[in-house]
Design goal:
By secondary structure, the protein is mostly beta strands. Helix content is 0%, strand content 54%.
Length: 121
C-alpha cells in the first residue's frame, strides 16, 4: 500500500511565499507522475502542476511563473514552491501520485490528505 502525507500549509500574506511537500511511503514499481491539485470552497478541483518520471513539468495558466514543482527521488518527496501568492490561491492543496505498483498492472492514483493554504492580509 502507498500512503502520501502532506505536512505544511498555513497562512501567508499576499505576495508571500510558501513551500508544500508530499512524502510517499510504501512500495511500488515506478511512478508515472506526481501532481498538485487544489480546491477552493464551491469550486471544482483543479490541476495546478505536475512532473513526470522523466522530469517534464506542466502548470496551470493561473500559477505559471509563480509556482514550481520539483522532486527529490531519494526522499520520495515532491514539492510545490509558491511565490507571489494571491488571495485567489487560497484553497486546500492535494498531492496525487500516479503509480505502477507492479510492472504488469495498470497505474493507480494515490492522494494525500490535503493541506489548507490561506492567502490573506
Amino acid at each position: 500500500q502507498v500512503q502520501l502525507v502532506e505536512p505544511g500549509g498555513g497562512l501567508v500574506q499576499p505576495g508571500g511565499s510558501l513551500r508544500l511537500s508530499c512524502a510517499g511511503s510504501g512500495s511500488w514499481f515506478s511512478i508515472s507522475a506526481m501532481n498538485w491539485y487544489r480546491q477552493a470552497p464551491g469550486n471544482q478541483r483543479e490541476l495546478v502542476a505536475l512532473i513526470t518520471n522523466s522530469g517534464g513539468t506542466n502548470y496551470a495558466d493561473s500559477v505559471k511563473g509563480r509556482f514550481t514543482i520539483s522532486r527529490d527521488n531519494a526522499k520520495n518527496t515532491v514539492y510545490l514552491q509558491m511565490i507571489s501568492l494571491k488571495p485567489e490561491d487560497t484553497a486546500v492543496y492535494y498531492c496525487k501520485w500516479t503509480i505502477y505498483v507492479t510492472r504488469w498492472q495498470n497505474a493507480n492514483d494515490y492522494w494525500g490528505q490535503g493541506t489548507q493554504v490561506t492567502v490573506s492580509s
